[in-house]
Each structure stands twice: as structure tokens, then as C-alpha cells.
Amino acid sequence: MVLPHLLPLVPAPVTATAGEGRMPLTAASTVSGPAAATAQLIDAVARRSGIRLSSVEGDADITLRVDGALANAEGYSLTVGERVEVVGADEAGLFYGIQTLQQLLREDEDGSWGLLRATVADAPRFARRGVMLDVARHFFGVDDVKKFVDATSALKFNHLHLHLSDDQGWRIHIDSWPKLTELASSTSANGDPGGFYSKDDYREIVAHAASRHMIVIPEIDLPGHTHAIGVAYPELVEAPVLNDGLISESARLGQPLPVAGETYIGWGVGHSSVRIHKERTYDFVRDVVRELAEMTPGPYIHVGGDESLGTPQADFDLFAARATEIVVAAGKTPVAWHEMGSAADIAEGTVGQYWGNTTPQGTHAEEAAHFVARGGALIMSASNVAYLDMKYTPEFPLGLDWAAIIDVRAAYDWEPTAVLDVPATAILGVETPLWSETTRTISEVEQLVFPRAAAQAEIAWSPQTAPERTWDSFRARLGALAPLWKAEGVDFHPSPEIPWSAR
Asked: Which of 57, 60, 64, 207 is deepest in the core (most CB within 10 A)?
């Protein structure tokens, strides 16, 4: 069943009323407002329609402005009548209002362009709306990451989590430990080419994300997922622990087992650990965190903590406490995967990232709740609904299936506050991760990310009880994004679940 929707907006706004007809947009149309916002709108309209609006001072066909009294942070109002006015509660709200305005731009049968007349008032449900890009299993260059930022920020995501280190490679230059990029960055999973970001590269990504109102969260995964560190500095990492699961999975995939001091190109997990009782390990962590903090204006540094299968619990507890305190001492808020909640003395205020099932297994719920007990909060990334690297169907050529087969509807039909027995106020929001074992190019990344990222964006932004928060409404509105994504060069998967629009 497809319901008629006059306002094809994703994510669904708090309130929206459709007007009659369209406001014509032509080469004579003008726009006024803050310079950065005006330039972004002019460029976006030109990419979509070929029409280049003129920037003017004072009265214009499209007026962009900021009014701090308007709404909550990141909120905006939008009116399209005989003229257009977009008012943001802050600069981020104005940016999001412009993204909504772009979705109202439509081409008529005669080739002319216009904006659907509408009145919208909007603000986000969750303050934390994130995407994660794994640049460790496969490396993606600066331009690819910027393209990823552009496409996801247009859906009103406001955090970019970069997974910068793993067993397969180290991706950020650290002055005090130069061998990390000299010796441990050259390859990726499957033996594909690697790479790394210079500090200037990283700053360029951070600045571009900031221009789209996204905060970058760098992750150095510790104490496990650290085989690559041992390629550069063998004295910091224990010998691999070859558990039965790793051996059988490597044999099934035809992948090599990890060997100490040699580059690892398989996908297996749980075999690596830094040397937790060596003080030199904490010198390393302190230096890496310090250098990341110096070039990361956002408040967070992620220290991993997942799948440390070969690390005794007492050692893991010791490391978790020390690593999170190092982040605090650097002036940042530590973030960690939910397993780090098994450590009693994680730093107070540490934010947990829950990646377990929507029906928690084993000790996952207890581990996640411990972050809240320690004065922190939680980000929800339930792997069986929010992991963008899972396949759409069993036959889909990209992705994995260990968490679930996740079609677009499965990505849409979940509620972040219903997974764990913690206060709803403890849920900061949603993050939807893309792990890159099977993705060699940004095009392949986009096929897995889009359209499912739009489902996660609506869960994170739109009111849970909004009338449009239904699958039938969403799939119709989502289908209307096809022309915009095509104009922006987003290589989305045209899932047969969605009635995609031609114009």
C-alpha cells in the first residue's frame, strides 16, 4: 500500500503543511542570507537543476536567516509561498532547513523547476545522530570521506565516527609514533591497497564536516583490534591468540591466520591485545590521545573496547580504567563500545556505544547499563537493525550477514529506547555504522549505506509518535529522494521495497 504524500520529506518533520502548487524557480530567482548558507544553497540548486540563483542583499525570493528565539537547538522553520523564508534556531538549524528545502525542489513535465509550497516547523528528537565509516579495514581518501559527509549530513546526521585503527591497518599519522603509518598502513583487508591521513588530511576532513555541522569522533580501537600496532611496534602487542572461532572462520573464508609482526589481511577478530602490564603501552595511548585531541575540536575520543576475546577480564578492567582516564585527562569525553561497561572503574561520564542485538544477549545489557550507572549515557547501534554493512538480501553481493539480513524495512522498524532497561533520557541517540570488510570503493559504501541510512536518520530525528512515522509513509517519501540522490552522485541501492520516483 502506497499512501499519497504531498511533502516528500525525509526525515519526517515535526509538523508540515502542504500548500497548493509550486513556487517557480528560475535563473532570475534570488537568495539572501549568511554567506556560507547562501553559497551552499546556490551550489545545491545548480547541481540539481542547472539553475544558478543570484545572491543579493536585502529582499530576495529566498531569505535565509538565524533567529535564536525560534526553536530548540538545530531546529528551523520553513515557509514556501510566493517567496521562501528559512529560519534556523542556529547555524545548524539553518543548514537543516536548507536540506529540507532541497527536497521540495521538483522538476515539472515541461522541464521547468519549482518548490512545493509548504510550511514546516522542525527540530530533532535526539541530539546525537551519527554515522560511522570504517577506514581501517579498507581505506577511503579525503575526497571520499567528504562525499560521505555531504550525503549523510543532508539527512541531518550530525556526528561522523571514523574508525581509524584495526587489525588490518593504522590510518592516522602520529608524530610521536611515526612507524604506525610507515609500517602499518600500506594494506587493507584482502590485501587491498591501504593508506593513511596526514594531520593536514585529518584537519581537512574535520573542517569539511564542521561546514556541514558534523562533529568528528576519532576512534583508536583498544586494547583489542590492535594487530596493526604490533606491525609497527612489536613490543606493544601480545602474540595473537588463535581461538577456535578464528581458525574455523579463516578456513571457511580462505584467509590467512594472523602472525605476530606481519601485516594481517583477514577479517577475524578477537586475537590481538596490547600489553596491558607494560607502562610503555600507556605512554603510547597517552601520546595518541594527546595528538588526536589537539586536532579534534569535538568533545569525544573513542577508545574501542570491543571483542577483546584473548584478554583476561582483570587485565581488560585495568586497561579500560586507565585508557578512559587518559581521555578525560586530555580534556575529552571517552566513548567506548558496550563491552567496556564490564569494567567496574571506567572513567565517570564515559559514553557507551551499544552494538548488541535489539534483544540483548548474554551480559550486553548489563555492560551497557554500567555506563549510565557511572554517570555516562548511551548511543544505540543495534547491529541487527543499524549495521549498514549487513546484506539487504542473502544474495546481495556486498556486505556480511553475521548480525542479520537487514532490508530497508528492518532498518526502519526499531525503537532505540526500547532495547535496554535504562531511562529514556540516558539514550543520547543513534549511530549507524558501516564496517568495510567487503567495500573497496566509496561507490560500494554508498550502495550499503543508502537508502538504509535514511531509515536511521528518521529514527534519530523525527518524533516517535508523528503521524508520518509509519513504514508506508516512509517508503513513499523515501522514493521521492531518488532524483536528488542521482543529482548528487549518490550510488544508492534501488531496493525493490521502495517506489522510486523518476523526477
From this structure: 64
